Amino acid sequence: MTKPRIALFIGILCISIFPVIVRMNLTSGLISAFYRMAIATAVILPIAIYKGKLKLESLKTLFPIAVCGVLFASDIAVWNISIQNSSATQATLLTNLSPIWVGIFSLLFLNFRPRKSFWLGTIIALLGMAIFVGFETILNLQFDAAFFLGILSGVLYALYILVSKTVLEKMEVITFITYSMIFSTVFLFFVNVIFGEQFLGFSDQAWISLFVQGIVCQLIAWLLISYATQSMRATRVSLSLLSQAIFATILAAIFVNEKITTVQMIGSVIILAGIATTFYEKKAAD
After folding, report:
1. In a domain, 286, yes or no
2. Which residue ranges run through the membrane (predicted)?
3. What distance lies between CA 202 and its chain's CA centroid?
């Protein structure tokens, strides 16, 4: 297993903690998204300054980085709201349609034709996801605001992966992540102000959860995932991210005593088989 793949695996493990924390409802979805970005930015910014990683070849590169920051911040905020206004299962299912959007957008806008292994892996993985969340959940989907927010979250996620892939080809990971998170933090600050969210007055448990989100789910996770994205195809990265649903379920069983059913185990195996399909091909550059 190559370093980028190891980094992707560990990064996915880190972000898998996030749904478990969100289910605790210790803070609102919007304020949670803001502090996730703000705490991560507060940690990485001094390091980037000390290492001299804030230099840019051209100020023009700030625009695509800002786009990435806004896309990512919007995805987190929209997903949080979706999960708190429907069910975690529904929100997870809809958000995890992102590999399809990555494949479609790659074909339409980047003139990149995803390989057959990607589409086959996507079909297998999405079948596994359907089994994992339960066909009853799919049949009972409510086409309300939360449903469309879940769809939007998947689209934003896909756009972020594609745009960040193009930006990361031109700069170091720490430079990209630092600037991107600065833009995300500023954007989410104003969103929270507009919606009248309270920035203080949380319980000790809530603050702990916010720091875990910021340091583990954001900083560590996305440094690793961004490093992997530099070397791997965006389609492959997006499909691999589906495995976070499996890890999130395992973590939920450990920390909030949720039971893992036989159906979920079967779905998990199929999801992993779909992801593995995209890696099973003749040797070629990622």
Report:
1. no
2. 7-26, 32-50, 62-81, 93-111, 118-139, 145-163, 175-195, 207-225, 237-256, 262-280
3. 25
Residue 67 lies in a domain: yes
**Are residues 162 and 105 in contact, defined by beta-carbon separation less than 8 angstroms?**
yes
Identify whether 30 is part of a domain.
Answer: yes
- Confirm if 141 and 82 have CB atoms less than 8 A apart: no
Of the candidates 166, 70, 156, 66, the residue with the CA atom closest to the CA atom of residue 111: 166
The string of pLDDT tens digits covering residues 24-66 is 778 888 898 999 999 999 999 999 999 999 988 788 889 999 9
Task: Count up the domains in the chain and report the number.
Answer: 1
User: What distance in Å separates the CA atoms of residue 79 and residue 152, rounded to the nearest whole number?
Assistant: 8
- Whole-angstrom Cα distance, residue 159 to residue 143? 23
Residues 6+ apart with CB under 8 A from 116: none
CB atoms within 10 A of CB 112: 16
Instruction: Please name the residue ranges forming H helices in 169-219.
Output: 173-194, 204-212
CB 232, CB 8: distance < 8 Å: yes
Domain coverage including residue 249: 3-279
Burial code of 175-193, b = ≥16 C-beta within 10 A, e = fewer?
A: bbbbbbbbbbbbbbbebbe
Residues 102-120 pLDDT 10s: 777 777 776 667 777 778 8
Whole-prediction pTM: 0.80
| 87 token code pair | 């069910």
pLDDT at 231 over 60: yes
CA of residue 132 relative to chain centroid, distance: 19
Asked if residue 92 belongs to a domain, the reply is yes
